[in-house]
Design goal:
The chain contains 10 helices and 20 strands. The protein has helices spanning 3-14, 50-59, 111-120, 151-154, 172-175, 202-219, 239-245, 274-292, 310-313, 320-324; strands spanning 22-27, 41-46, 66-69, 75-77, 82-88, 96-99, 102-106, 123-124, 145-146, 149-150, 155-161, 167-170, 189-196, 198-199, 225-229, 251-253, 256-258, 265-268, 301-303, 318-319. The longest helix is centred in the last third of the chain and has 19 residues, at 274-292.
């Protein structure tokens, strides 16, 4: 940490209310994401519970920027890091409770763990969550889904805290959920939700989850440093098909690459920067638009600021085989 960044962090901390959770200045965030790239958070706050979060937000000066992150599965943090306060929900938000055919889960609970807990309790209909590599809280703004089902299909109600610290409970209709989209205020921080399943045989439910796991392993580069599905599917089409048709499978920029296994996945091959990854994604969008007239929309969330000089250092994307040669 330089003297300048330390002074900036100290100045920011002096503006913040007291908390029961943890505050960390210049916290490494990039290593927490699945891409393993990106700069630090100016200040990272891990609230102890909902009350701690609400009290913090209610007393936080309005001019301080707030960013919320989960486990970083579908997230790209730019190389210059994240200004202001970054909030990450941890153990105090990870409880999962099944009862009858309803599962109550904290926003910090992994989607996979919610599906597993439901299966063990004989609650079906939530198997698709095992195919979403993220947390419950991260799924609302994009109405996350997989294998034919989405959050809106099983959601009873979600609980959120707004920027002023007020609590809200909303249902799917109020949230305006549709394919990879919602009408939710982006400043809201979701803290938990209730999902409706159906009674079923635990063995059959687990078998369904195993099928989803096998399908993912067969078609996606799940063991690579990737952020999951990169672009949303346009109406009536598939993003991967458009990317393929534009000749982008295997395309490379710096340490970033379009997966050979699934063309809608960006990969950090080992030494990529966030600028490499985002730049490659933008190049794909450009090529797809030139060929099809369709502008792909990012599904990966990109946050933070670019590092000084990134634009000047960008390299032209090239096919993987050309780089290897």
């Amino acid at each position: 940490m330089t003297a300048e960044t330390e002074a900036a962090a100290d100045a920011l901390i002096r503006q913040l209310p007291p908390v029961r959770g943890r505050l960390t200045a210049n916290a490494p965030i990039g290593p927490l994401t699945w891409f393993r790239v990106g700069g630090p958070a100016e200040l990272l706050f891990r609230p102890a519970d909902t009350e701690d979060l609400a009290a913090f937000l209610s007393a936080l000066p309005a001019e301080v920027t707030v960013t919320v992150i989960g486990v970083g599965s579908n997230l790209l943090v730019r190389d210059g890091g994240i200004p202001g306060v970054t909030i990450r929900l941890g153990r105090g938000f990870a409880e999962i409770t099944p009862a009858d055919d309803i599962v109550t889960a904290g926003a910090g609970a992994l989607d996979m763990n919610v599906a597993l807990t439901a299966a063990q309790a004989g609650i079906g209909g939530l198997e698709f969550l095992s195919g979403i590599p993220g947390t419950i809280g991260g799924g609302f703004q994009t109405n996350a889904g997989a294998y034919g089902r989405e959050f809106k299909d099983v959601l009873i109600a979600a609980h959120a805290v707004d920027r002023n610290g007020s609590l809200h409970t909303v249902g799917p209709a109020e949230m305006g959920l549709s394919y990879r989209h919602s009408e939710i205020d982006p400043s809201w921080i979701f803290v938990g939700a209730r999902f409706k399943g159906m009674s079923g045989d635990p063995a059959a439910i687990v078998a369904g989850m195993e099928e989803i796991k096998a399908a993912r392993e067969a078609s996606q580069p799940i063991r690579a440093r990737t952020g999951g599905s990169t672009f949303a599917n346009p109406p009536g089409d598939k993003a991967w098909r458009l990317i393929d048709e534009a000749g982008c499978r295997g395309l490379v920029r710096g340490g970033a690459m379009i997966s050979e296994k699934h063309a809608n996945f960006l990969i950090n091959t080992g030494n990529a920067t966030a600028a490499d990854i985002e730049g490659l994604g933008e190049e794909v969008r450009r090529r797809v638009y030139e060929r099809s007239g369709i502008m792909l929309q990012w599904e990966i969330r990109r946050i933070g600021r670019a590092k000084s000089g990134d634009a000047a250092e960008e390299k032209t994307a090239e096919p993987a085989q050309a780089r290897a040669g």
